[in-house]
Amino acid sequence: MADEAQSRAEGPFTTLGSRFRNLPRSLTFRVVAFSSVWAIIALVVIATVISTLFRQVSQRGFENVLSAHLFNLIASVSATEDGRLLGSPNLGDLRFSEPLSGWYWSVEPASEALRNSLRSPSLVQQVHSPSTDAVPFDRSFQRKYLEEGPGGERIEVLEAEVVLDNIDRIARFRVMGNRSELEQEIADFASRLFAYLAIFGLGMIAINVFALLVALKPLGSIRRALANIRAGTAERLSGPFPGEIAPLAEETNALIESNRRIIERARMQVGNLAHSLKTPLAVLMNEGRALGGEQGMLIANQAAAMQKQIDHYLQRARAAAQRNTLASRSPVNQTLARMVRVAEKLNPDKRLETKLPQGEVTFAGEREDLEEITGNLLENAMKWAKGKVALSLHPPQHNGDRRFRIVIEDDGPGIPEDQARQALKRGRRLDETKPGTGLGLSIVADLVEEYGGTLLLERSALGGLRAEVVLPSA
User: Fold this and answer.
1) Which residues are paired to 446 by β-bridges?
2) Domain assignment present for 204
3) How big, in percent rounded to 5, are the helix, strand and coil portions of the chain?
4) pLDDT tens-place string over residues 225-239
5) What are phi and psi of 116, to 5 degrees?
6) Total-model pTM
7) Which helix (DSSP H) or strand (DSSP E) does residue 286 occupy?
8) What is the helix (H) or strand (E) element at residue 390, kind and residue range?
């Protein structure tokens, strides 16, 4: 009982783990994973390209603005005859009037003939200017460099030296823009871009998953149709299928029909064989009884043994033919309940305890084979029991093993372990005082083997034999 409880407790987790292990083999998972990875790579590349282009455009625009302000500044400043710089530049941007805004301009003398300097109201302290050796002027007598502004911000400086008049008085013009503000705008744009593309990517993946599930829905219909065929509730695949799947459904139906014809032909041949041998064997048995004496009894007994052997091999051939069919399904609970009622009527002096589960168990095979297996075991138990027989049915556990167990126990003498194998041989009888042919357990063993099951004989807790049969369930 503890093992069964543990199996029930671990069953859902084991099943969930097996699903995750089989996930990479799923066609849906493969297509979704491939499309998702490709979408992520494409969106990352797109975001990188767009953000790079935006940075380049923003920097170029920033530099163009600085260049335009520099030209306006140069045009707005002049020098008096006594060497004073004169002018009130209006660059059209209020940030040059706001202290520590990061946007500044200044005009400083670069020759001894000029005496004063001019600066924007926003520039509250001087900004360091590197030497011309560190940052030289270009052919347009301009240079560009980055410095730290008065407010701790990072500023870009565009500087030019201009000759103001014909006596070669030179002034140094500088326009400074807030580079930290530009970098922050670029970073904000990149973050918004990645966020929007992430939302777009998730939506695209969701649409791909939905479209894929809709496209693969006919495969689910085929799977359910095949499950109905295996369960015995349908005989063929039916329903409208897309053009890509319709040939598969047609070939599957043709295979099922071919298998059914083979089984029917085998059944017909088995029936013909049984019918053709029935009359000659009956004649032999009747002639033997009529002949009488020792020779007559020998003929009758051998004819009866031949009949038993023929029934045994015909039963095994029918089981082998039915083992891999799709539509062979039999209810186990109902079959066992019916056989228990018959056994109780035939053995009123024996007490038969039955333990059947609430849920229905379905045998993946023929009802006649299940009756043959349980009937022989139950008959054997009732024959040898002193007064009590127990029959129990154990449904499949939730651990991936799709097999059920039938256990029949009695309180009889049992079978020693060294003789258990001998009891399974055809015609082998451990006690000649009991009636029978010795074929019951061997028939059970052969049928169980044909269905890929197992038969175990051991000592019962009741004192007698414990027979456990494991068979596949649907």
Assistant:
1) none
2) yes
3) 55, 15, 30
4) 887 777 667 777 777
5) -115, 175
6) 0.51
7) helix 246-291
8) strand 388-394
> What is the domain count for the chain?
3
Could you tell me which residues come within 8 angstroms of residue 108 by beta carbon, excluding any fewer than 6 positions away? 117, 171, 172, 174
Contacts of 237 (CB under 8 A, 6+ apart): 222, 225, 226, 229, 249, 252, 253, 256
Residues 275 and 313 in one domain: yes
> Which of these three, 322, 338, 354, is where a domain ends?
322
316 and 344: one domain? no
- Residue 453: left if φ>0, alpha if ψ -120 to 50, beta else—which one? beta
Q: State whether 167 and 314 are in the same domain.
A: no
298 and 428 share one domain:
no
Q: How many CB atoms lie within 10 A of CB 466?
A: 20
Distance CA 411, CA 87 (A): 123
**pLDDT tens string 383-442:** 888 889 999 999 988 766 788 999 999 998 887 766 666 555 544 444 444 444 445 677
Burial class from Cβ neighbours inside 10 Å (0-12, 13-18, 19+) for residue 424 reads middle
Domain shared by 250 and 378, yes or no: no
* Structural domain boundaries enclosing 260: 246-322
Domain check: are 97 and 174 in the same one?
yes
